[in-house]
Amino acid sequence: MSKTTSKPLDLNATLRQVRHAVIAVECPACGRSGQLDRAILVKKHGASITFARLRRIAAMGCDRLVSTDGDRCQTRFPCLDPDV
């Protein structure tokens, strides 16, 4: 029996590609975390919204997202990593 390894998705992935009912979001830098209901996200933004765009929405107000050093925000979606 062969094990199929799936390649991790990146922030260009869309909600259409990730079918989890709940999308977890976390930021190790500031300790924030939460869960987003996929159905509500699709209804509000459409299934073609990218995780890059969702990341910017989730991290709105983060000083690290827009700093003089560039994007230092660590907001991430664990569902994009197949090992999680």
Automatic annotation (TrEMBL):
This is Transposase IS66 family protein. It comes from Pseudorhizobium halotolerans.
